[in-house]
Amino acid sequence: MVETPVDDEPLEDAGDDDADEAIVTALTAPDVASGRRLDAWLADAVLLSRSRCQQLIDDGDVSIGGARVRGSMRLVGGEKVVVRVPPPQRTELVPQDLPLTVLFEDDDVLVIDKVAGMAVHPGAGIVDGTVANAVLHRCPGVAISGEQRPGIVHRLDKDTSGVLVIAKHDQAHQALTRAFAARVVDKRYAAFCLGALATSRVEWITGHRRADGDRRRFTTRLPPPAREGGTVRRAHTVAHTSAVGGGASALDVELFTGRTHQIRAHLADSGHPLLQDELYGGGRAHKRLPPGPVRDATAQLGRQALHARRLELPHPRTGARLVLEAPLPAELAAVDRAIRGAV
User: Fold this and answer.
1) Integer CA distances (angstroms), 210 to 16, 80, 86, 265, in order
2) Which residue among 47, 137, 141, 261 has the highest number of C-beta atoms inside a 10 angstrom radius?
3) Domain with 31 in it: what CATH number?
4) Backbone phi, then psi, for 63, in 5-degree steps?
5) What is the pTM of this model?
6) What is the average per-residue pLDDT within 85-109?
7) Is 170 a catalytic site residue?
């Protein structure tokens, strides 16, 4: 049984959530960026739209050597660029009629298969179109965890798909939170990474903290802490390889701690980032794969190759075990078939 899953920590663990603080990132323009416009290069470097980057530049939130810059400036390479993304303005969460794939629902809980590209709740740069907006529409009056997070017990990264549980009332929310804390929640992920792991079963027990110079990233290149409570936290992941082919691997991942980006960081730090995970070195992964079906299927991915496939937990009222599974979305199923077909 796991404590709390990696990309969906319980919301009381607010230290890893940046919705209320500015994100400051220090970047160095590489030599290959020479001649590119700053705004165009920045959009690729920080994974924001070009218009959003231009707005940050216009607002003085991008600087080089402490000085304001213009988006049209041409880089020469080697510039030290500091980017500050302010927190979103807190506004009343508006119910929105957004499509949700429901896996289970009763008077106490709602369990959905979250699609990739949909944020769980408002955060930096995201003010609507989230699961929280959709929950308010489907379940009027739900306001657990604050107005920005109605009923949200745990979270998944925006570009991670799969099983997500939502409490419909306060008693259910408290019971589910206790279940996560008591390590009686089991959650498994399907992951697809570059290359092949050293052995068919790999276990990581490491430290975990924010990476230096980029608050969006986390590093696991640390020994586990002797005790909890500091800035370095313990991260425990087990990955089982189910297939290898075409330069990539299909993994079944089991989690024993709940750290933000834990799967992504453990795989990246082992030299096998998730396919198309821009933040952790897996971007444009298809360019590093040999020609063939795996490369073709990977090229079609518009998101990181991570899916929360299975959740098992006690029902918050009856205590009966709920086992919920979300099938692989079509784009990941295509990668999976290609890897298994290449074996």
Assistant:
1) 9, 20, 18, 10
2) 261
3) 3.10.290.10
4) -140, 155
5) 0.75
6) 84
7) no
